[in-house]
Specification:
40% helix; UspA; Rossmann fold; two-stranded antiparallel ribbon; Universal_stress_UspA; alpha/beta; Rossmann-like_a/b/a_fold
């Protein structure tokens, strides 16, 4: 069985991974070990394709852009966050399921659906933050979007109820 688990910095995504490793993967299915791809999607970097640190924005007006050092620093910070998140997720998978990692850039809801289609996965697993209707309408919901747009079955793992 080929599975993708969407992982971000949230406790809900790690709970979804924990739930999946404890409840779905029981060693070997059909003689083949399960393979889980842990996918972390980070937002696009604010890369500016202009070499100088300032460009003309109109008559007598100059717009400042971040230097390449700032952009490189931002990219390194994103890579460190992704590495830390996926390292923690890989540790959770050890001795339970074979796992690989993938880091992509873009909108998480779009990228998870796109990757699951490209990789022809059997199941996409995402956590749920438990947003109410109003917050979900304004903020959007990755899990809701994936449930409606992914071309494979999608499992949304809700966190345990808080007392």
């Amino acid at each position: 069985m080929r599975v993708i688990v969407g992982i971000d910095e949230s406790d809900e995504s790690f709970y979804a991974l924990e739930w999946a490793t404890n409840n779905l993967f029981n060693g070997i299915v059909g003689g083949e070990p399960n393979l889980v791809t842990l996918v972390h999607v980070h937002p696009p970097s604010k890369r500016y394709g202009v070499a100088p640190s300032a460009i003309p924005a109109g008559p007598g007006v100059t717009a400042a852009l971040p230097s390449t050092g700032v952009v490189d620093s931002e990219r390194r910070a994103e890579e460190q966050i992704s590495a830390a998140v996926l390292s923690r997720a890989l540790e959770m998978c050890s001795n339970k399921v074979k796992a690989e990692t993938l880091i992509v850039e873009g909108d998480p809801k779009d990228m998870l659906c796109e990757i699951s289609e490209q990789m022809k996965v059997d199941l996409l697993i995402v956590g749920s933050r438990g947003l109410g209707r109003i917050k979900r309408a304004f903020l959007g919901s990755v899990s809701d979007y994936c449930a409606h747009h992914a071309k494979c079955p999608t499992l949304i793992v809700k966190p345990p109820a808080k007392d």
